């Protein structure tokens, strides 16, 4: 059976160009970048070059990039680092109810440690309100963390407006840009963000590498202790080959971003057209305008996530849902619950399809047909 | 025309135990298109966020990866609560001893789960039950598993023709010992896993404690049939007819047993001796009858029956008494017939069907304390 991958928001295949760049490092450059000899310098050079490319990709300088093991670690580092460093100024944090669990669970942990966290609600399209944020800002607010692009529905939050609002406030501004990086053009100064998380494996790079942008001058209490790597901000020997792969992935984005966006948008259109032609009844979760090109989240009334995903997989279609359904437990999507209320049936009958370079038009057409057949069979 | 095994999709209900693991293995070896599905019916998540389902699902994942078959999970907590657990509590409330496994097979495994399997394009649903299905002239028969000690037809007595036409029991022809051997030979992750015991949602926990979380206990008097007070009971629902342990009656003479209940007066009847006369009856009446295949009840049906799991068959005669109910007369008087449990009928190895024990009789009259 042919399998079609429509789950690029979960992770992406490593781009062949990325593999090509990584192999020589894996084969030949094994030195520890901290070592004071030839081997160490070889590795260090790779880190420096990558750091430069990556810093430029978001309008930052090299000193502001801290390599991490990925998005989750970057989010943890931002929240825990600021909270612990700034707690003398206040113990109030603002985030949203639709963040990735890497942020939400960390915020919940901080609540247990005595911090107060405000979770901003979102509207039916998944957006927070700036006024709402403004009303919740307090003198003791030390951090505002709002994701750039939601991983389930693709909605793009008004990051620049938030940055503007926070200009005159002591609170640092963190954004989880894991789903934005590679699709949106990002300039940290224009956006007014102080901290920004990314991950390589969402942009056709390897797993196990990401970075946290930390605006110059901001001190973070480290989340792990050991050597003095990453300017004492992240102990542990750097993953040189992965860093090289991350750089290659970022370089590809710099050249291909517009083309990719154009293509993914057309996939979206073709996909929905295919469903409509087969008479499938569905609704779109989230906004159709302020959303990224690659993600589309659809609700199929009269179905449920378990049946849909199992049927899709058995027909060779790989998609996913925000509802966790491992080990038989169905947790309704927290994002859709925040948008529609937890009793809304959309929280349990919605599927996220996310397109990427693993797809072509033919595949998208085929998958629309297969999805339509399954939904029609289940709702017949 | 029959489909080739490779074009025949079989969904296997996998619990993470050795039986369903081997069931999946055997079907895979026979060349079927096997899909493993884990079913979650009960949430026992503790205060640390740990639940047994997570561990069991991990075992399903490991076995399915060893067999190279896809695996998924499905949740029937709501259906289980509505159809099985509610019945379970209601029966205890009326002083009876329910059989949730029979109900779970009827309403969940071979209804909700079967429907789910069919919605996935399955041709058959398979489970690790020890039973056999045989087709004869378009009629389906359910036979005991060849391992007499493991035979599970008792729990499957409510299955219909339609259900049997869609199920496979790959372990029916194999003794349990051999199932373990097969698992070991293939190095299955669950080869040495302990069999689960007890009622699935209670697991290893204390039964009394569990029940008290859901039903208020009403302590009362423990008396002989003659009315002599022998102590206090903790609540009638905690006791089963014929039970010896946990009564706390000392003194000389033969041990004491539960011989009946008076729900109205909230009295637990006790009597001395395993063979206490009050425990014996010679007939019962059953409701919720399901006949797996057509039986002729114009004449009294002579067959054998089981009144509880893992009991030897007894010779009986079955008479219809209207409303789809039957009276079952025993060739020899029987000890501790328990209302709420299943009575299951057999003709040799063929399971004819069964029902729920509702009333117990002796010398043509109902035994009040066993009602």
UniProtKB/TrEMBL annotation, chain A:
Q: Which reaction does it catalyse?
A: (sulfur carrier)-H + L-cysteine = (sulfur carrier)-SH + L-alanine
Cofactor(s) recorded in Swiss-Prot or TrEMBL: pyridoxal 5'-phosphate
Q: Which keywords are on file for this protein?
A: Aminotransferase, Iron, Iron-sulfur, Metal-binding, Pyridoxal phosphate, Transferase
What positions does the domain Aminotransferase class V occupy? Answer: 4-365
Q: What class of enzyme is it?
A: transferase
Task: State the InterPro entries in the record.
Answer: Aminotrans_V_dom (IPR000192), Aminotrans_V_PyrdxlP_BS (IPR020578), Cysteine_dSase (IPR016454), PyrdxlP-dep_Trfase (IPR015424), PyrdxlP-dep_Trfase_major (IPR015421), PyrdxlP-dep_Trfase_small (IPR015422)
| EC number from the UniProt entry | 2.8.1.7
- Show the GO MF annotations: cysteine desulfurase activity; iron-sulfur cluster binding; metal ion binding; transaminase activity
Where is the signal peptide, in residue numbers?
Answer: none
| Homology family | Belongs to the class-V pyridoxal-phosphate-dependent aminotransferase family. NifS/IscS subfamily.
Descriptive protein name: cysteine desulfurase
Naturally occurring in which organism (per UniProt): Salinibacillus xinjiangensis
User: What lineage is this protein's organism placed in?
Assistant: Bacteria, Bacillati, Bacillota, Bacilli, Bacillales
From TrEMBL, chain B:
List the Gene Ontology MF annotations in alphabetical order.
ATP binding; tRNA binding; tRNA-uridine 2-sulfurtransferase activity
Q: tRNA-specific 2-thiouridylase MnmA-like C-terminal domain: from which residue to which, for each copy?
A: 282-357
Marked site (Interaction with tRNA) residue numbers: 129, 341
Kindly list the places in or outside the cell where this protein is found, as annotated in its UniProt entry: Cytoplasm
Reaction(s) catalysed by this chain's protein: S-sulfanyl-L-cysteinyl-[protein] + uridine(34) in tRNA + AH2 + ATP = 2-thiouridine(34) in tRNA + L-cysteinyl-[protein] + A + AMP + diphosphate + H(+)
Q: Where does the chain bind ATP?
A: 13-20, 39, 128
Identify the EC number(s): 2.8.1.13
Keywords (A to Z) from UniProt: ATP-binding, Cytoplasm, Disulfide bond, Nucleotide-binding, RNA-binding, Transferase, tRNA processing, tRNA-binding
The keyword Cell cycle is annotated on this UniProt entry: no
Q: Name one Pfam family in it.
A: tRNA_Me_trans_C
Its predominant location is: cytoplasm
Domain of life of the native organism: Bacteria
A GO biological-process term: tRNA wobble position uridine thiolation
Q: Which residues form the active site?
A: 104, 200
- Which EC class does it fall in? transferase
Q: Where is this region: Interaction with target base in tRNA?
A: 99-101
Segments of this protein annotated with the region Interaction with tRNA: 150-152, 308-309
Record domain tRNA-specific 2-thiouridylase MnmA-like central: where = 208-272
Q: What's a single GO CC term here?
A: cytoplasm
Show the PANTHER family listed in the entry. Answer: MITOCHONDRIAL TRNA-SPECIFIC 2-THIOURIDYLASE 1 (PTHR11933:SF5), TRNA 5-METHYLAMINOMETHYL-2-THIOURIDYLATE -METHYLTRANSFERASE (PTHR11933)
HAMAP family according to UniProt:
tRNA_thiouridyl_MnmA (MF_00144)
Q: Which family does it belong to?
A: Belongs to the MnmA/TRMU family.
Function in brief: Catalyzes the 2-thiolation of uridine at the wobble position (U34) of tRNA, leading to the formation of s(2)U34.
What is the protein name for this chain? tRNA-specific 2-thiouridylase MnmA
Instruction: State the species of origin.
Output: Salinibacillus xinjiangensis
Q: Which gene encodes it?
A: mnmA
């Amino acid at each position: 059976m042919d399998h079609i991958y429509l789950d690029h928001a979960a992770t992406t295949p490593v781009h062949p160009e990325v593999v090509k760049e990584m192999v020589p490092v894996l084969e030949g450059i094994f030195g520890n970048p901290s070592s004071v000899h030839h081997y160490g310098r070889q590795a260090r050079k790779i880190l420096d070059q990558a750091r430069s490319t990556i810093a430029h990709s978001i309008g930052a300088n090299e000193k502001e990039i801290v390599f991490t093991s990925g998005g989750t670690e970057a989010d943890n580092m931002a929240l825990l680092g600021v909270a612990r460093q700034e707690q003398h100024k206040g113990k109030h944090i603002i985030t949203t109810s639709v963040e990735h669990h890497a942020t939400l669970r960390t915020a919940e942990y901080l609540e247990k440690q005595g911090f107060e966290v405000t979770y901003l609600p979102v509207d039916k399209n998944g957006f927070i309100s700036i006024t709402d944020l403004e009303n919740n800002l307090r003198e003791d607010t030390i951090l505002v963390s709002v994701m750039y692009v939601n991983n389930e529905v693709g909605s793009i939050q008004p990051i620049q407006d938030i940055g503007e609002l926070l200009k005159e406030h002591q609170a640092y501004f963190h954004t989880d840009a894991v789903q934005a990086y590679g699709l949106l053009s990002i300039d940290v100064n224009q956006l007014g963000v102080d901290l920004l998380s990314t991950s390589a494996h969402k942009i056709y790079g390897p797993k196990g590498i990401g970075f946290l942008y930390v605006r110059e001058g901001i001190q973070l209490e480290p989340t792990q202790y050991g050597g003095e790597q990453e300017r004492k901000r992240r102990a542990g020997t750097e993953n040189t080959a992965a860093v090289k792969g991350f750089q290659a992935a970022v370089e590809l984005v710099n050249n291909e971003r517009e083309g990719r966006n154009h293509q993914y948008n057309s996939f979206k259109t073709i996909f929905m057209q295919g469903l409509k032609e087969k008479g499938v009844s569905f609704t779109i979760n989230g906004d159709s305008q302020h959303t990224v090109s690659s993600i589309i989240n659809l609700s199929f009334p009269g179905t449920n996530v378990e049946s849909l995903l199992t049927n899709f997989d058995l027909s060779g279609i790989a998609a996913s849902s925000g509802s966790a359904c491992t080990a038989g437990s169905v947790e309704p999507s927290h994002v859709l619950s925040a948008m529609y209320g937890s009793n809304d049936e959309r929280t349990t009958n919605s599927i996220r399809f996310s397109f990427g370079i693993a797809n072509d038009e033919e595949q998208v057409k085929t998958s629309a047909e297969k999805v339509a057949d399954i939904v029609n069979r289940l709702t017949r | 025309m029959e489909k080739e095994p490779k074009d025949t999709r079989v969904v296997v209900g996998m619990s993470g135990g050795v039986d369903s693991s081997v069931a999946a293995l055997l079907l895979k070896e026979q060349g079927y298109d096997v899909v493993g599905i884990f079913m979650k019916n009960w949430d026992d998540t503790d205060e640390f966020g740990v639940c047994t389902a997570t561990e069991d699902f991990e075992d399903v994942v490991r076995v399915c990866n060893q067999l190279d078959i896809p695996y998924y999970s499905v949740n029937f907590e709501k259906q289980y609560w509505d159809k099985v657990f509610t019945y379970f509590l209601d029966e205890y409330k009326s002083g009876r001893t329910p059989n949730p496994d029979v109900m779970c097979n009827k309403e969940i495994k071979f209804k909700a789960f079967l429907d789910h399997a069919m919605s996935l394009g399955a041709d058959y649903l398979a489970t690790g039950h020890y039973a056999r299905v045989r087709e004869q002239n378009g009629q389906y028969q359910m036979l005991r598993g060849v391992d007499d000690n493991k035979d599970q037809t008792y729990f499957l007595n409510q299955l219909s023709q339609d259900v049997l036409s869609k199920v496979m029991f790959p372990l029916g022809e194999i003794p349990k010992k051999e199932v373990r051997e097969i698992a070991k030979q293939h190095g299955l992750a669950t080869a040495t896993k302990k069999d689960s015991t007890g009622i699935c949602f209670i697991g290893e926990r204390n039964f009394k404690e569990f029940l008290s979380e859901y039903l208020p206990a009403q302590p009362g008097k423990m008396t002989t049939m003659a009315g002599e007070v022998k102590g206090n009971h903790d609540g009638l629902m905690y006791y089963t007819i014929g039970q010896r342990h946990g009564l706390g009656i000392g003194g000389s003479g033969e041990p004491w047993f539960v011989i009946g209940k008076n729900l109205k007066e909230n009295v637990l009847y006790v009597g001395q001796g395993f063979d206490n006369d009050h425990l014996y009856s010679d007939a019962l009446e059953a409701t919720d009858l399901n006949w797996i295949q057509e039986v002729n009840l114009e004449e009294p049906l002579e067959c054998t029956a089981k009144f509880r799991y893992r009991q030897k068959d007894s010779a009986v005669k079955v008479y219809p008494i209207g409303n789809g109910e039957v009276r079952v007369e025993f060739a020899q008087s029987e000890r501790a017939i328990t209302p709420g449990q299943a009575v299951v009928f057999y003709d040799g190895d063929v399971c004819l069907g069964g029902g729920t024990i509702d009333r117990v009789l002796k010398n043509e009259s109902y035994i009040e304390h066993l009602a």
